Every structure is written in structure tokens, then in C-alpha cells.
TrEMBL record:
Stretches of the chain forming a coiled coil according to its record: none
Organism, scientific name: Micromonas pusilla (Picoplanktonic green alga)
InterPro entries listed in its UniProt record: RWD_dom, UBQ-conjugating_enzyme/RWD
Chain segments carrying region Disordered: 141-168
Record protein name field: RWD domain-containing protein
Gene3D superfamilies the record matches: Ubiquitin Conjugating Enzyme (3.10.110.10)
SUPFAM superfamilies from the UniProt entry: UBC-like (SSF54495)
Every RWD domain range: 15-141
Amino acid sequence: MEAGERAENLERQAEEAEALAAIYGDDFVRACDGGTVWEIRVPLGDPDGPDERRPSDEVPFDAMLTRDGTPAPDCLVARVVPVETYPSRTPPLVEVHPVGALIQHRMDAALAAMDEEHAASDGDVCVFAFVTRLREMARAWRDEDRPSRRTGRHDDDDDHDAPAHPAI
């Protein structure tokens, strides 16, 4: 990579970080030395709706489910590392935390979304598009996991291709 391309990438990353900070406010944090890691909180509950939380021993009305079937935390954290080849050649590295907050196929979809958004961006910055998409996915997952839709549903990641009635 040429020095000019690297410098342009760093400039675009700095501009993107400023824009993300302005858009997300307290939900955006520059972590590590020099802000080289960006963390963006993504709500899993309805950010526009009333707080429908019940006492701690009850499942919230709109709770998403984690890998072990328990209610998910209030938010995910998208941890983004804009590597020197981002955005011109590669997407940034991305992690979604907490790791167990999503069932496996949802985690896979969340991580794949970054690659897809970068491919669609044609070498432009894409973290905002990724976070927007992650928020849309979280809304869809929350709707899928509403209690009225859970009846008889088993979200075992490994069993989604299994026959409805196993052979005896």
C-alpha cells in the first residue's frame, strides 16, 4: 500500500469517527490508545418505545433470546477496528459483544453484514451503514422473539435443518 493511500484512509477514518460520534453521542466510544478501536452500542430493546421491563425475575415483553434461551442484554456493542487498508481495500475488523448474546446464525449474520456493507460501499466508509443494518437486524430479531411468536419455537442453531419428527 502506498503512503498516499494509507494517509487518505487515515483521514477518512478520522472523519468517519467524528461523524459517528456526532450521530451516536454517548453510544459511540473511541477505545484503546489513540481511539484506534470504536465501540458503538446497539439497543436490543425498542429504543423508541416505552421501557417495558418487568421485575428482574420476569422476562421483558420484547426480549430477544441468547444462545442459552435467556433474555439478551439491553444492547450489543459493535467493536470496530479500522485497519490501515480500510476503507479503500478492506472492511474494518468487527466484533459483536457480548459474544453469547446472539444465537449463532444471528451472530454470523451480524458479522457478515460488515463485509456486505463494505462491498456495497465501493471503497467508501461503511461503519454507519453497518450499524444501521445491525439495528435493523436487532429489530427483526426482537420481533421474531416476541412471546407471541415463541410458542413451540426451538431456536437450536444446529437443529434448524432437522426433520420436524425425528425417525424412531
